[in-house]
Write a structure and sequence with these properties.
WH-like_DNA-bd_sf, two-stranded antiparallel ribbon, 2 domains, 10 helices, Winged helix-turn-helix domain-containing protein, globular, ArsR-like_HTH, HTH_ArsR_DNA-bd_dom, alpha+beta, Arc Repressor Mutant, subunit A
């Protein structure tokens, strides 16, 4: 017979800061090697392997093999669960200037698995609504009739996105802004296009996203939104 879900087992996995550091790094959406995750968590390779084994056995991570290389990624639905838990978590105590700067950068712009979050993600989503691309519905966003034309201005195509198994335009509550940003297949497609245009840049081994000067100019021209000059 099947009992209730064993939430305590997941809680035990999340009760270790090393494992949490690895999970948060993978929340950036890119698979990472064990050595890269060891560097992120600041632990030895052997200790990282032990933690990763527990996360895989617990169903939070999936291993992908390419030849002799093994990379780890979040299992399905884990990213959404982590973002939800971040809404409940108290602020971490800042112990250095470096940590303070990193926290500010995370709040400004970061990857929420495969879509843009933080101040930049929220402001961009709200600008899309003002431009008439998105309208709020009870369970998420809907793309207006004019939306595809506006999105096509920067090369984002909706063809086929609405036929994917995931929602087209989903609301995702931003843990730092406490407002919604755009998720779903459209959120992922839009973020990918912003990266292609070099309007935003991913940081190596980090969820932090940097808005470029070209991106500030492009978003201002496209959506009339001022996000400040990036680096």
């Amino acid at each position: 017979m099947t009992g209730e879900a064993d939430l305590a087992r997941i809680g035990a996995l999340l009760a270790d800061r090393t494992r949490v550091a690895m999970l948060l790094a993978l929340l950036g959406g890119r698979p990472m090697s064990a050595s890269a995750l060891a560097d992120v968590a600041g632990v030895s390779a052997s200790l990282a392997s032990a933690h990763l084994r527990k996360l895989v056995e617990g169903g939070l991570l999936v291993v992908e093999s390419a030849g002799r290389q093994r990379h780890f990624r979040l299992a399905t639905a884990v990213a959404d669960a982590l973002e939800g838990l971040l809404l409940l978590a108290p602020p971490d105590r800042v112990t250095s200037l470096r940590a303070s700067v990193r926290g500010q950068n995370l709040r400004r712009a970061r990857m929420c698995y495969d879509h843009l979050a933080g101040t930049v993600g929220v402001v961009l989503t709200e600008a899309l609504a003002r431009r008439g691309v998105l309208v709020e519905r009870e369970r998420g966003y809907a793309v207006t009739a004019e939306g595809p034309l506006v999105l096509a201005e920067i090369g984002v195509r909706l063809d086929g996105l609405d036929r994917l198994r995931r929602p087209l335009a989903r609301r995702c509550m931003d843990w730092s802004e406490r407002r919604h940003h755009l998720a779903g297949s459209l959120g992922a497609a839009l973020t990918s296009r912003l990266i292609e245009l070099d309007w935003v840049r991913l940081s190596e081994a980090s969820r932090v996203v940097r808005l470029t000067t070209a991106g500030q100019r492009g978003l201002d021209e496209w959506l009339q939104v001022d996000l400040g000059v990036g680096s």
